[in-house]
Amino acid sequence: MTMIDASLLEQENETRAKALESDYDALAGQLNRRGIAIETVKRKVSACGVAVPSWGVGTGGTRFARFPGPGEPRDIFDKLEDCSVIHALTRATPTVSLHIPWDKAEPDALKAKAEELGLGFDAMNSNTFQDQPDLVQSYKFGSLSHTDAATRQQAIEHNLECIALGEAIGSKALTIWVGDGSNFPGQSHFTRQFERYLEAAKTIYADLPADWRLFTEHKMYEPAFYSTVVQDWGTNYLIAQELGDRAFCLVDLGHHAPNVNIEMIVARLIQFGKLGGFHFNDSKYGDDDLDTGSIDPYRLFLVFNELVDAELRQAAGFNPAHMLDQSHNVTDPIESLMVSAMEVQRAYAQALLVDRTALGAFQDANDALMATTTLKAAFRTDVEPILAKARLEAGGAIDPVATYRAAGYRQRVSEIRPAVSGAGGGIV
Ligand SMILES: [Mn+2]
Predict the structure, then answer these.
(1) What pTM did the predictor assign?
(2) Ligand 1 mean position to 35 CA, how many Å?
(3) Per-residue pLDDT tens digits for 286-306
(4) How far apart are the CA of 392 and the centre of ligand 1, in A?
Protein backbone atom coordinates (compact mmCIF):
# COMPACT_ATOMS: atom_id res chain seq x y z
CA MET A 1 0.00 0.00 0.00
CA THR A 2 1.34 3.41 -0.88
CA MET A 3 0.15 6.74 0.46
CA ILE A 4 1.59 8.78 -2.42
CA ASP A 5 0.19 8.35 -5.92
CA ALA A 6 2.79 6.63 -8.12
CA SER A 7 1.94 8.56 -11.28
CA LEU A 8 2.20 11.89 -9.46
CA LEU A 9 5.61 10.88 -8.10
CA GLU A 10 6.73 9.93 -11.59
CA GLN A 11 5.44 13.16 -13.04
CA GLU A 12 7.17 15.25 -10.36
CA ASN A 13 10.45 13.42 -10.92
CA GLU A 14 10.10 13.85 -14.66
CA THR A 15 10.20 17.64 -14.32
CA ARG A 16 13.50 17.47 -12.42
CA ALA A 17 15.28 14.48 -13.97
CA LYS A 18 17.17 16.30 -16.69
CA ALA A 19 18.64 18.95 -14.38
CA LEU A 20 19.61 16.23 -11.92
CA GLU A 21 21.47 14.25 -14.59
CA SER A 22 23.42 17.31 -15.54
CA ASP A 23 24.27 18.21 -11.91
CA TYR A 24 25.19 14.61 -11.12
CA ASP A 25 27.53 14.36 -14.11
CA ALA A 26 29.20 17.63 -13.19
CA LEU A 27 29.74 16.46 -9.62
CA ALA A 28 31.00 13.07 -10.84
CA GLY A 29 33.66 14.87 -12.87
CA GLN A 30 34.65 17.08 -9.97
CA LEU A 31 34.91 14.13 -7.55
CA ASN A 32 36.78 12.08 -10.13
CA ARG A 33 39.52 14.74 -10.16
CA ARG A 34 39.72 14.28 -6.37
CA GLY A 35 40.06 10.52 -6.77
CA ILE A 36 36.53 9.73 -5.56
CA ALA A 37 34.12 7.41 -7.39
CA ILE A 38 30.68 9.01 -7.14
CA GLU A 39 28.89 5.67 -7.59
CA THR A 40 30.57 4.28 -4.45
CA VAL A 41 29.43 7.27 -2.43
CA LYS A 42 25.91 6.99 -3.84
CA ARG A 43 25.73 3.29 -2.98
CA LYS A 44 26.74 3.97 0.62
CA VAL A 45 24.28 6.84 0.93
CA SER A 46 21.48 4.56 -0.34
CA ALA A 47 22.24 2.13 2.47
CA CYS A 48 22.23 4.86 5.13
CA GLY A 49 18.85 4.89 6.85
CA VAL A 50 17.55 6.64 9.91
CA ALA A 51 14.58 5.63 12.06
CA VAL A 52 11.63 7.99 12.43
CA PRO A 53 10.35 8.43 15.99
CA SER A 54 6.62 7.70 16.06
CA TRP A 55 6.12 10.73 18.32
CA GLY A 56 7.75 12.97 15.72
CA VAL A 57 4.88 12.85 13.22
CA GLY A 58 2.52 14.64 15.60
CA THR A 59 3.09 18.33 16.26
CA GLY A 60 5.36 18.58 19.27
CA GLY A 61 5.11 21.45 21.64
CA THR A 62 6.91 23.24 24.38
CA ARG A 63 6.15 23.28 28.10
CA PHE A 64 4.05 26.36 27.33
CA ALA A 65 1.74 25.13 24.64
CA ARG A 66 1.14 22.92 21.69
CA PHE A 67 -0.33 24.19 18.45
CA PRO A 68 -1.62 21.16 16.55
CA GLY A 69 -1.67 21.22 12.78
CA PRO A 70 -4.35 19.82 10.48
CA GLY A 71 -4.64 16.07 10.04
CA GLU A 72 -2.75 15.10 13.19
CA PRO A 73 -2.36 11.32 13.52
CA ARG A 74 -4.95 9.90 15.91
CA ASP A 75 -3.10 6.74 16.87
CA ILE A 76 -0.09 4.61 16.05
CA PHE A 77 -1.69 3.37 12.83
CA ASP A 78 -2.09 6.92 11.53
CA LYS A 79 1.46 7.61 12.67
CA LEU A 80 2.72 4.63 10.68
CA GLU A 81 0.95 5.94 7.58
CA ASP A 82 2.66 9.30 8.00
CA CYS A 83 6.00 7.54 8.51
CA SER A 84 5.46 5.60 5.30
CA VAL A 85 5.02 8.87 3.37
CA ILE A 86 8.39 10.04 4.69
CA HIS A 87 10.03 6.82 3.56
CA ALA A 88 8.21 6.65 0.23
CA LEU A 89 9.57 10.04 -0.78
CA THR A 90 13.04 10.01 0.83
CA ARG A 91 13.82 6.28 0.85
CA ALA A 92 15.89 7.11 3.90
CA THR A 93 13.60 6.06 6.78
CA PRO A 94 12.80 2.34 6.53
CA THR A 95 12.05 1.93 10.23
CA VAL A 96 9.97 3.48 13.00
CA SER A 97 10.90 3.75 16.65
CA LEU A 98 7.92 3.21 18.97
CA HIS A 99 7.26 4.83 22.30
CA ILE A 100 5.36 2.87 24.93
CA PRO A 101 2.68 3.39 26.24
CA TRP A 102 1.87 6.08 23.64
CA ASP A 103 1.98 3.52 20.81
CA LYS A 104 0.67 0.49 22.63
CA ALA A 105 -1.39 -1.77 20.35
CA GLU A 106 -1.91 -5.40 19.42
CA PRO A 107 1.47 -6.69 18.16
CA ASP A 108 -0.15 -8.55 15.26
CA ALA A 109 -1.99 -5.42 14.15
CA LEU A 110 1.22 -3.35 14.40
CA LYS A 111 3.15 -5.90 12.38
CA ALA A 112 0.46 -6.20 9.73
CA LYS A 113 0.19 -2.44 9.30
CA ALA A 114 3.97 -2.01 9.08
CA GLU A 115 4.24 -4.81 6.54
CA GLU A 116 1.44 -3.34 4.46
CA LEU A 117 3.32 -0.02 4.41
CA GLY A 118 6.76 -1.55 3.88
CA LEU A 119 8.15 -0.39 7.23
CA GLY A 120 10.11 -2.11 10.00
CA PHE A 121 10.52 -1.33 13.69
CA ASP A 122 13.63 0.13 15.27
CA ALA A 123 14.43 0.52 18.99
CA MET A 124 11.57 0.49 21.51
CA ASN A 125 11.40 3.47 23.87
CA SER A 126 10.11 3.10 27.39
CA ASN A 127 8.43 5.88 29.33
CA THR A 128 8.90 6.21 33.07
CA PHE A 129 9.02 10.00 33.06
CA GLN A 130 5.27 10.58 33.30
CA ASP A 131 2.40 8.94 35.14
CA GLN A 132 -0.26 6.95 33.30
CA PRO A 133 -3.88 6.56 34.45
CA ASP A 134 -3.52 2.84 35.17
CA LEU A 135 -0.33 3.06 37.22
CA VAL A 136 -0.29 2.57 40.98
CA GLN A 137 3.03 4.26 41.74
CA SER A 138 3.96 7.80 40.71
CA TYR A 139 7.17 8.80 38.97
CA LYS A 140 7.11 12.27 40.47
CA PHE A 141 10.29 11.51 42.41
CA GLY A 142 11.91 9.19 39.93
CA SER A 143 11.54 5.74 38.41
CA LEU A 144 14.45 3.30 38.17
CA SER A 145 16.30 5.20 40.90
CA HIS A 146 13.27 5.94 43.10
CA THR A 147 13.75 5.55 46.85
CA ASP A 148 10.67 3.29 46.94
CA ALA A 149 11.23 -0.32 45.83
CA ALA A 150 7.67 -0.75 44.53
CA THR A 151 8.08 2.24 42.21
CA ARG A 152 11.39 0.90 40.92
CA GLN A 153 9.73 -2.46 40.35
CA GLN A 154 6.89 -0.86 38.41
CA ALA A 155 9.45 0.93 36.18
CA ILE A 156 11.36 -2.32 35.65
CA GLU A 157 8.20 -4.16 34.67
CA HIS A 158 7.28 -1.43 32.20
CA ASN A 159 10.66 -1.83 30.48
CA LEU A 160 10.19 -5.61 30.35
CA GLU A 161 6.76 -5.04 28.79
CA CYS A 162 8.44 -2.85 26.12
CA ILE A 163 10.89 -5.66 25.38
CA ALA A 164 8.06 -8.21 25.10
CA LEU A 165 6.11 -6.03 22.67
CA GLY A 166 9.30 -5.25 20.75
CA GLU A 167 10.10 -8.93 20.41
CA ALA A 168 6.65 -9.60 19.01
CA ILE A 169 7.06 -6.97 16.28
CA GLY A 170 10.70 -7.59 15.35
CA SER A 171 12.52 -4.82 17.21
CA LYS A 172 16.06 -5.56 18.39
CA ALA A 173 16.77 -2.84 20.93
CA LEU A 174 15.41 -1.00 23.94
CA THR A 175 16.23 2.63 24.62
CA ILE A 176 15.92 3.81 28.20
CA TRP A 177 15.85 7.44 29.10
CA VAL A 178 14.81 8.39 32.63
CA GLY A 179 13.98 11.84 33.93
CA ASP A 180 15.21 10.86 37.40
CA GLY A 181 17.17 13.48 39.28
CA SER A 182 16.66 16.17 41.87
CA ASN A 183 15.65 19.81 41.98
CA PHE A 184 17.45 20.89 45.14
CA PRO A 185 20.94 20.40 46.59
CA GLY A 186 20.66 17.77 49.29
CA GLN A 187 17.38 16.35 47.96
CA SER A 188 19.01 13.10 46.81
CA HIS A 189 22.08 11.14 47.82
CA PHE A 190 24.02 10.98 44.54
CA THR A 191 25.70 7.64 45.19
CA ARG A 192 22.75 5.77 46.66
CA GLN A 193 20.49 7.10 43.91
CA PHE A 194 22.85 5.87 41.20
CA GLU A 195 23.23 2.51 42.98
CA ARG A 196 19.47 2.07 42.86
CA TYR A 197 19.43 2.97 39.16
CA LEU A 198 22.18 0.47 38.36
CA GLU A 199 20.48 -2.30 40.29
CA ALA A 200 17.19 -1.70 38.44
CA ALA A 201 18.93 -1.41 35.05
CA LYS A 202 20.74 -4.70 35.72
CA THR A 203 17.39 -6.40 36.34
CA ILE A 204 16.14 -5.19 32.95
CA TYR A 205 19.39 -6.16 31.24
CA ALA A 206 19.15 -9.67 32.68
CA ASP A 207 15.91 -10.15 30.74
CA LEU A 208 17.21 -8.72 27.46
CA PRO A 209 16.87 -11.25 24.60
CA ALA A 210 20.24 -12.57 23.39
CA ASP A 211 20.06 -10.76 20.05
CA TRP A 212 18.97 -7.42 21.54
CA ARG A 213 20.91 -4.33 22.53
CA LEU A 214 20.15 -1.99 25.40
CA PHE A 215 20.70 1.72 24.79
CA THR A 216 20.80 4.13 27.69
CA GLU A 217 20.42 7.80 26.87
CA HIS A 218 21.97 10.54 28.95
CA LYS A 219 20.64 14.07 29.32
CA MET A 220 22.18 16.84 31.35
CA TYR A 221 19.07 18.37 32.87
CA GLU A 222 15.28 18.65 32.57
CA PRO A 223 12.85 17.65 33.97
CA ALA A 224 15.15 17.68 37.01
CA PHE A 225 16.98 21.00 37.27
CA TYR A 226 19.63 20.52 39.95
CA SER A 227 20.96 17.03 39.23
CA THR A 228 20.13 14.25 36.82
CA VAL A 229 20.99 10.61 37.44
CA VAL A 230 22.21 9.86 33.90
CA GLN A 231 23.52 13.34 33.20
CA ASP A 232 26.44 12.90 30.87
CA TRP A 233 28.33 10.48 28.67
CA GLY A 234 30.70 9.57 31.51
CA THR A 235 27.89 8.28 33.71
CA ASN A 236 26.33 6.66 30.67
CA TYR A 237 29.58 4.89 29.89
CA LEU A 238 29.76 3.61 33.47
CA ILE A 239 26.24 2.19 33.08
CA ALA A 240 27.12 0.40 29.84
CA GLN A 241 30.28 -0.98 31.48
CA GLU A 242 28.41 -2.20 34.54
CA LEU A 243 25.62 -3.85 32.57
CA GLY A 244 27.61 -5.82 30.02
CA ASP A 245 28.43 -6.45 26.36
CA ARG A 246 24.99 -5.69 24.98
CA ALA A 247 24.65 -2.36 26.76
CA PHE A 248 25.58 0.78 24.83
CA CYS A 249 25.42 4.54 25.12
CA LEU A 250 22.96 6.53 23.06
CA VAL A 251 23.96 10.06 22.09
CA ASP A 252 21.14 12.57 21.68
CA LEU A 253 22.72 15.63 20.09
CA GLY A 254 20.67 18.00 22.25
CA HIS A 255 21.44 16.42 25.61
CA HIS A 256 24.80 18.01 26.34
CA ALA A 257 26.07 21.16 27.99
CA PRO A 258 26.33 24.10 25.59
CA ASN A 259 29.48 24.06 23.44
CA VAL A 260 30.41 20.51 24.39
CA ASN A 261 32.51 18.76 21.77
CA ILE A 262 30.02 16.04 20.82
CA GLU A 263 32.10 14.57 18.01
CA MET A 264 34.86 13.89 20.51
CA ILE A 265 32.42 12.09 22.83
CA VAL A 266 31.42 10.01 19.81
CA ALA A 267 35.08 9.17 19.12
CA ARG A 268 35.64 8.11 22.74
CA LEU A 269 32.57 5.86 22.78
CA ILE A 270 33.63 4.26 19.48
CA GLN A 271 37.15 3.69 20.80
CA PHE A 272 35.83 1.74 23.76
CA GLY A 273 33.12 -0.11 21.85
CA LYS A 274 30.19 1.54 23.60
CA LEU A 275 28.54 3.73 20.99
CA GLY A 276 24.99 2.44 20.64
CA GLY A 277 23.49 5.05 18.40
CA PHE A 278 22.02 8.50 18.02
CA HIS A 279 19.00 10.62 18.48
CA PHE A 280 19.62 13.22 15.81
CA ASN A 281 18.28 16.74 16.22
CA ASP A 282 19.79 20.19 16.54
CA SER A 283 19.92 22.82 19.24
CA LYS A 284 20.80 26.43 19.81
CA TYR A 285 20.43 26.83 23.57
CA GLY A 286 19.57 23.54 25.21
CA ASP A 287 17.55 20.44 24.44
CA ASP A 288 15.69 22.36 21.77
CA ASP A 289 14.79 19.32 19.64
CA LEU A 290 15.11 21.42 16.49
CA ASP A 291 15.41 19.83 13.07
CA THR A 292 18.63 17.93 12.39
CA GLY A 293 21.22 20.11 10.69
CA SER A 294 19.06 23.24 10.90
CA ILE A 295 21.33 25.17 13.27
CA ASP A 296 24.82 23.71 13.04
CA PRO A 297 25.25 21.44 10.02
CA TYR A 298 29.03 21.54 10.46
CA ARG A 299 28.73 19.85 13.85
CA LEU A 300 26.59 17.13 12.31
CA PHE A 301 29.26 16.70 9.64
CA LEU A 302 31.98 16.44 12.29
CA VAL A 303 30.00 13.70 14.07
CA PHE A 304 29.72 11.82 10.78
CA ASN A 305 33.39 12.40 10.15
CA GLU A 306 34.05 10.28 13.25
CA LEU A 307 31.51 7.67 12.15
CA VAL A 308 33.01 7.32 8.68
CA ASP A 309 36.50 7.14 10.17
CA ALA A 310 35.33 4.22 12.34
CA GLU A 311 33.49 2.59 9.45
CA LEU A 312 36.53 2.70 7.17
CA ARG A 313 38.93 1.31 9.75
CA GLN A 314 36.32 -1.28 10.75
CA ALA A 315 36.38 -0.38 14.41
CA ALA A 316 35.45 -3.33 16.65
CA GLY A 317 31.77 -3.50 17.61
CA PHE A 318 30.91 -0.43 15.53
CA ASN A 319 27.23 -0.59 14.56
CA PRO A 320 25.42 2.58 15.64
CA ALA A 321 21.64 2.87 15.35
CA HIS A 322 20.46 6.08 13.69
CA MET A 323 17.27 7.65 14.95
CA LEU A 324 15.74 11.10 14.78
CA ASP A 325 14.36 12.69 17.94
CA GLN A 326 12.79 16.06 17.28
CA SER A 327 9.85 18.21 18.26
CA HIS A 328 8.13 20.09 15.44
CA ASN A 329 6.32 23.19 16.56
CA VAL A 330 6.02 25.42 13.51
CA THR A 331 6.37 23.04 10.56
CA ASP A 332 4.48 20.13 9.08
CA PRO A 333 6.17 17.23 10.93
CA ILE A 334 6.31 15.11 7.77
CA GLU A 335 8.23 17.84 5.95
CA SER A 336 10.60 18.38 8.88
CA LEU A 337 11.31 14.66 9.19
CA MET A 338 11.94 14.30 5.46
CA VAL A 339 14.38 17.21 5.45
CA SER A 340 16.06 15.91 8.62
CA ALA A 341 16.53 12.40 7.23
CA MET A 342 18.13 13.95 4.17
CA GLU A 343 20.40 16.04 6.39
CA VAL A 344 21.64 12.85 8.04
CA GLN A 345 22.42 11.39 4.61
CA ARG A 346 24.03 14.66 3.54
CA ALA A 347 26.40 14.73 6.51
CA TYR A 348 27.27 11.09 5.84
CA ALA A 349 27.94 11.76 2.14
CA GLN A 350 30.10 14.78 2.94
CA ALA A 351 32.07 12.77 5.49
CA LEU A 352 32.67 10.08 2.86
CA LEU A 353 34.41 12.74 0.73
CA VAL A 354 37.10 13.53 3.32
CA ASP A 355 40.55 12.76 1.93
CA ARG A 356 41.62 10.62 4.89
CA THR A 357 45.11 9.86 3.64
CA ALA A 358 45.86 13.56 3.31
CA LEU A 359 44.16 14.31 6.65
CA GLY A 360 46.26 11.68 8.43
CA ALA A 361 49.46 13.08 6.94
CA PHE A 362 48.56 16.64 7.97
CA GLN A 363 47.73 15.44 11.48
CA ASP A 364 51.07 13.63 11.78
CA ALA A 365 52.91 16.68 10.50
CA ASN A 366 51.02 18.98 12.89
CA ASP A 367 49.78 21.01 9.96
CA ALA A 368 46.66 22.32 11.66
CA LEU A 369 45.63 24.63 8.85
CA MET A 370 45.77 22.01 6.11
CA ALA A 371 44.13 19.38 8.32
CA THR A 372 41.12 21.55 8.99
CA THR A 373 41.03 22.73 5.36
CA THR A 374 40.84 19.08 4.31
CA LEU A 375 37.68 18.64 6.38
CA LYS A 376 36.23 21.87 5.04
CA ALA A 377 36.83 20.79 1.43
CA ALA A 378 34.55 17.80 2.02
CA PHE A 379 31.97 19.82 3.95
CA ARG A 380 31.81 22.51 1.27
CA THR A 381 30.97 20.01 -1.47
CA ASP A 382 27.33 20.16 -2.54
CA VAL A 383 26.35 16.49 -2.44
CA GLU A 384 22.66 17.09 -3.21
CA PRO A 385 22.90 15.41 -6.67
CA ILE A 386 24.17 12.22 -4.97
CA LEU A 387 21.32 12.20 -2.46
CA ALA A 388 18.70 12.97 -5.12
CA LYS A 389 20.02 10.30 -7.48
CA ALA A 390 20.06 7.74 -4.66
CA ARG A 391 16.44 8.61 -3.84
CA LEU A 392 15.34 8.49 -7.45
CA GLU A 393 16.93 5.10 -8.08
CA ALA A 394 15.33 3.69 -4.93
CA GLY A 395 11.88 4.82 -6.07
CA GLY A 396 11.73 8.06 -4.09
CA ALA A 397 11.41 11.71 -5.05
CA ILE A 398 14.10 13.96 -6.45
CA ASP A 399 12.50 16.75 -4.40
CA PRO A 400 10.54 15.14 -1.54
CA VAL A 401 9.07 18.33 -0.06
CA ALA A 402 7.81 19.69 -3.39
CA THR A 403 6.38 16.28 -4.28
CA TYR A 404 4.72 15.93 -0.88
CA ARG A 405 3.06 19.31 -1.27
CA ALA A 406 1.94 18.49 -4.80
CA ALA A 407 0.44 15.22 -3.57
CA GLY A 408 -1.85 17.05 -1.12
CA TYR A 409 -1.40 14.34 1.54
CA ARG A 410 -1.90 16.65 4.51
CA GLN A 411 -5.09 18.07 3.04
CA ARG A 412 -6.37 14.54 2.40
CA VAL A 413 -5.75 13.22 5.90
CA SER A 414 -7.09 16.38 7.51
CA GLU A 415 -10.47 15.52 5.98
CA ILE A 416 -10.39 12.07 7.61
CA ARG A 417 -8.71 12.87 10.91
CA PRO A 418 -10.67 15.20 13.20
CA ALA A 419 -8.91 18.28 14.50
CA VAL A 420 -7.38 17.88 17.95
CA SER A 421 -7.22 20.44 20.71
CA GLY A 422 -4.06 22.27 21.67
CA ALA A 423 -4.05 21.00 25.22
CA GLY A 424 -1.16 18.98 26.54
CA GLY A 425 2.49 19.66 27.05
CA GLY A 426 5.51 19.13 24.91
CA ILE A 427 7.78 16.24 24.33
CA VAL A 428 11.19 15.87 25.88
MN1 LIG B 1 16.35 11.53 22.74
Answers:
(1) 0.97
(2) 38
(3) 999 999 999 999 999 999 999
(4) 30
